[in-house]
Specification:
The chain is an alpha/beta fold and 282 residues long. Helix content is 26%, strand content 27%. The chain contains seven helices and 14 strands.
Length: 282
Amino acid sequence: MIEKFVFDSGKEGTKLLVLGAIHGNEVAGPNALRQIIKEIEDKKINMTNGRLTLVPVCNVEANKKDVRQIDENLNRVMREHQNPSTYEQKLANEICLLIKDCDILLDLHSTHCKGDEPFAFCDYPDENNLKLIEGLDVKYVLKGWPQIYDAQGEIEDFSTERAAKNYNKSATTLECGYHKEAGAKDVAYNAVVNTLKGFGLIDGVVSNKIEKTSILMKEYVVKKKEGRLTKNYKHLDRIYKGEKIAQYDDGQELFAVDDGYILLPNLEAEIGAEWYYFGVKE
């Protein structure tokens, strides 16, 4: 059973749910949420309205082993399973109950590559989603995730944002930067505090609003056999039409289909997992 911390003001207001470590080795969220919990318990942060539920570590066993997952990607099976057959499916059943019971979800992640730029996903824009994103310390917002998964159909996509949408809730996923950089924890911490302020759960004004640039995701590439990326790409690196991005060990090469950005490159992707994404400025 996952460990959750619930702080109820006793007054009407927004019910906010914040998740950390959907992937076990993504530690920025857990570190930030543990700090938030301590500051609430020490009365340095005081709830004035609504209810806050924090889950520092969703994928407990993967977190203990410092790996991304145990059986499968938890952020691709986030729906209710009548007969769960994997560890992550059992977790999804627990987490879906929490999503059902919130108004707004903030899902904290971090990325694979040192120096990665923090960014947010905007999968299903609505008033609350956009308000939440406005208060995040990120320059870039990625759009179009559901559309590329529906269009390509290579991988079933049941993410936390999709689960929230299915339950008529608002949600955003925040990628806080590289897992092990200290600044990633700060991005996660500021996101939670600004969200609490923005939706009136604590007193204060959202600070340091950053102008956002929207990137439209156009496709994802699944790693289908042994191979490698041709560079140590970082998220949001510029790429150009015809550029060789990856090469399989059997000699097959993959090229950029247009000018744009490489998104979420995974230098250590396993066969069958997403290798990288391609996007353009909206």
